């Protein structure tokens, strides 16, 4: 009872923040749509549209590159002048893009989707976070940290539920049903933003000028987060292949990822009630270390049991780096929530791009098991970049 009282107070404190419930709900629907749709996007491209492996790689790469460009532009607009149209356009593009996937029948339709609609829609993640942070920052450091952790937890919850929801729809409908459902969820996110009448607030008092020196000071952090996301996506590819082909079955692949997502929610929830003090670099280093250990464990003990047990390490690493890494960028760019969130989102887009380009080439030369060593090396590289930044400061 004594423990439940602080939890209740923390929850009520967050829900008293103006527009925070609306932002949280919009993130839940928007990320649930992405989790459902992108879990089956390769299957859609290959099985329904008939893309070749080369076309599939180009399609996924085009989507990532487009997302990086649009997210950067919209993040700059968010900080320069408070306006809602980038977020509204992004959510509308998400709804239209997933709807187009439901009726697409030719490769060119998906390529057009990747270049335009997917690129615009990818900005909604960073814009929703930046919008929420504008209100959270007015409540004090502790509440702001708890709020950002809650938003990240909601994102992980979406990725825990989304693929399972997609599996239900594909069983009773088909692939088209997944994308109709994703489009409806994106429409709900757009409706929440419109009905709540949420506005963008600008933190002009503490806003830092975007000089070349300021942007260069963020480079180690952005590179570290890019290494993290590259390891995360590459490792997911490696686990999918070695589990399905050697250690277990395709069902085990889904169970492993769902288990990790659920554990992420639990670990991230701890940050809601016990937030880290600012951008704790030691905690960030610990996150990279835990993530590296996760990739090193299956090398001497290559078994399905090892991977199941190691999901706690994976979830812990992802939770720590995601929450503390974003806080680190926000500390480096005070008053620039849009650019900070865009840099974090683009590190994920870049990681997805690099993993898609590098997984096949590396595995072709050294085998799929060698990807675990590569991912561990990327984690150590990320930790080293964090240390370099710490020494410079």
From TrEMBL:
Membrane topology designation: Multi-pass membrane protein
Keywords: Cell membrane, Membrane, Sugar transport, Transmembrane, Transmembrane helix, Transport
Gene Ontology biological process terms in this record: transmembrane transport
Keyword Membrane: yes
Annotated InterPro entries: MFS_trans_sf
Domain of life the protein comes from: Bacteria
Keyword DNA repair: no
An annotated GO cellular component: plasma membrane
Localisation: Cell membrane
Transmembrane segments: 20-46, 58-77, 83-103, 110-130, 178-198, 210-233, 253-273, 282-301, 307-327, 339-362, 368-388
Protein name: MFS transporter
Gene source species: Rhizobium laguerreae
């Amino acid at each position: 009872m004594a423990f439940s009282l602080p939890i209740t107070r923390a929850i009520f404190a967050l829900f008293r923040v103006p527009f925070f419930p609306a932002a949280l709900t919009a993130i839940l629907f928007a990320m649930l749509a992405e989790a459902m749709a992108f879990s089956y996007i390769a299957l859609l491209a290959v099985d329904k549209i008939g893309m070749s492996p080369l076309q599939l790689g180009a399609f996924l790469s085009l989507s990532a590159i487009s997302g990086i460009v649009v997210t950067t532009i919209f993040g700059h607009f968010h900080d320069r002048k408070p306006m809602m149209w980038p977020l509204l356009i992004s959510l509308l593009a998400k709804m239209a893009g997933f709807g187009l996937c439901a009726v697409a029948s030719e490769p060119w339709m998906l390529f057009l989707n990747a270049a335009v609609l997917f690129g615009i829609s990818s900005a909604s993640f960073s814009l929703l976070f930046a919008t929420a942070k504008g209100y959270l920052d007015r409540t004090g450091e502790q509440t702001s940290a708890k709020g950002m952790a809650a938003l990240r937890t909601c994102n992980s919850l979406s990725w825990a539920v989304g693929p399972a929801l997609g599996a239900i729809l594909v069983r009773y409908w088909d692939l088209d049903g997944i994308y109709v459902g994703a489009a409806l969820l994106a429409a709900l996110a757009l409706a929440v933003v419109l009905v709540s009448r949420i506005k963008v607030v600008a933190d002009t008092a503490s806003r830092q000028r975007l000089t070349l020196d300021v942007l260069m000071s963020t480079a180690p952090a952005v590179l570290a987060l890019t290494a993290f996301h590259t390891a995360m996506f590459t490792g997911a590819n490696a686990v999918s292949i070695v589990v399905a082909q050697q250690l277990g079955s395709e069902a085990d692949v889904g169970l492993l990822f769902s288990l990790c997502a659920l554990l992420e929610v639990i670990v991230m929830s701890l940050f809601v009630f016990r937030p880290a003090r600012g951008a704790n670099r030691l905690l960030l280093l610990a996150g990279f270390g835990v993530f590296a250990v996760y990739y090193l464990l299956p090398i001497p003990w290559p078994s399905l049991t090892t991977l199941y047990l190691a999901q706690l390490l994976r979830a812990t690493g992802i939770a720590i780096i995601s929450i503390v890494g974003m806080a680190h960028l926000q500390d480096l760019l005070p008053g620039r929530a849009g650019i900070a969130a865009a840099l974090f989102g683009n590190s994920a887009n870049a990681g997805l791009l690099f993993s898609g380009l590098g997984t096949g080439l590396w595995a072709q030369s050294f085998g799929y098991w060698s990807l675990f060593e590569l991912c561990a090396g990327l984690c150590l590289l990320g930790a080293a970049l964090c240390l370099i930044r710490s020494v410079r400061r």
